[in-house]
Design a protein that fits this description.
globular; six-stranded antiparallel β-sheet; alpha+beta; single chain; 32% strand; 179 residues
């Protein structure tokens, strides 16, 4: 009887392990934090210095729902072009997962990208901003918060534009994102 239970437990463990074979976005961040081709930064939402900005009530709610940002950027060079392609493909595969709900696509002079989110329509847990440029590389930003509202994303962008935040405190990743 003990052998049957052990065998059943082992089989269940193997089935559960095989179901989660795709790398999660969180695992991707952790796995690449020490990779020299990546720039990684965890930033508290307070860095935006929004306390003194004149915001509407909706914009203030949007800002207050934020906790922090996780930034991970792959800086492309002529030496790592092959790795860039491989890493870009990994990220795009992770973001194809049905758990990520697409909010909008981005196509600008700087590159292409997408904004997706995790959570319910009225209570987002995480917003994911991905963008890539053939010349520079790609950036992946996880915006973490409590019960963020999809309708507030535009409000949040407008609030940040109202602020005088110019990327202070971002160090090397700020230079990468600017140009």
């Amino acid at each position: 009887m003990k052998n049957i239970i052990k065998t059943g437990f082992l089989a269940l463990t193997m089935v559960l392990a095989s179901c989660s074979s795709q790398q999660s976005l969180q695992e991707y961040y952790v796995d690449n934090q020490e990779n020299p081709n990546f720039i990684s930064l965890d930033i508290p939402a307070s860095i935006l210095k929004m306390e003194e900005v004149d915001l509407s009530e909706t914009q203030r709610d949007a800002v207050e729902s934020l906790k922090k940002f996780n930034l991970l950027a792959f800086k492309k060079t002529s030496e790592n072009a092959t790795e860039y392609k491989a890493e870009k493909a990994k990220v795009k595969e992770i973001l194809k997962d049905d758990e990520f709900i697409e909010l909008m696509k981005i196509n600008s002079e700087y590159g292409r990208g997408v904004i997706k989110y995790l959570g319910d329509d009225d209570a987002i847990d995480e917003v994911i901003i991905y963008g890539d440029s053939k010349e520079k590389g790609f950036a992946l930003v996880r915006v973490l918060g409590d019960n963020m509202n999809p309708a507030h994303i535009i409000q949040l962008m407008q609030a940040i534009q109202k602020s005088e935040y110019k990327g202070e405190g971002l160090g090397e990743i700020g230079k990468f994102l600017k140009g």
